[in-house]
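Sanity check

After download, print the first record. It should look like this:
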Amino acid sequence: MKRIAVVILNWNGASMMRSFLPFVVAHSSDEAEVVVADNGSDDDSCAMLRNEFPEVRLIELGRNYGFADGYNKALEQVRAEYFVLLNSDVETVAGWLRPMLSYMDAHPEVAACQPKLLSYRDRGSFEYAGGAGGFIDRYGYPFCRGRIFADVENDRGQYDDIVPVMWATGAALMVRSRDWEEAGGLDGRFFAHMEEIDFCWRLRARGRGIVCIPGSVVYHVGGATLNRESPRKTFLNFRNNLLMLYKNLPQEELRHIMRVRGWLDCIAALKFLLTGDLSNARAVWRARREYRRLLPGFREARAVNMAAATGARIPERTSCSILFQYYLCGRKTFGSLKDKF
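Expected structure tokens:
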């Protein structure tokens, strides 16, 4: 058994597999088992993988479980010391696993890490989905070293240090299998979006570390630049963000933060309306209604998280409001943020 399993979740991505899987196989096979878990594709993905990539292990899940539960179901069938969750649209380079493996081996207190994520289309820029490691503000808004909201920075080496982060991108996430299992994996009820941040919050609350290893670099095509204003995506992001906050916020903060988020979500919906985007405005309201409907089913998860948390403040959950910093102070880069922590 190899120590690392690189697991790619696929859904109707035969053409994507043909483009990017050869890089993963060439750059990972010496150190890792490469696995593709198929999420019930109805294209020729499975036949293509069996015929063109016989060296890759194929797990057929039978139906589309979504990103979150798809990985849960797949990783139940994988045995390795380290799992690497890798998006199907990521180009790897030679040696990409070694810096992460070396760091994880030397730092047993760290549960998970990510490489530096650069844009496949503009290779000198960070990629939206994770940059050089993620943080979250006190009201639940995520941002990265290299990307705040839609503003993406060029990579000039400004974030090449290894630092603790609040969350590692699900596009290229290395995690100890022991930590994955103990924290319960991804929350399948999220389906997609915010699931890796929720997972990483659980790890950090339990006192486990997460870092970015910029010595490892991958290039991500990403969906954010393709369809960032999809109402479906807006719905999932808003709904799952609220559920994540409910599951993980300390009790003394919960009521205040959720009250403020109610006002902030109203402002977001109003902004969509004023720009003529009725579909996304409706998506915000649907997300809030669905959050309230689902809330009773998440009380047990919250209780489990509160019982497992160490109670220590998580430094990478910033005390500032990123909305205030970005919109009112005009600070559009991570390095320009004031009073980050």
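If your output differs, re-run the checksum step. Summary of this record's structure: The chain has a mean pLDDT of 95.
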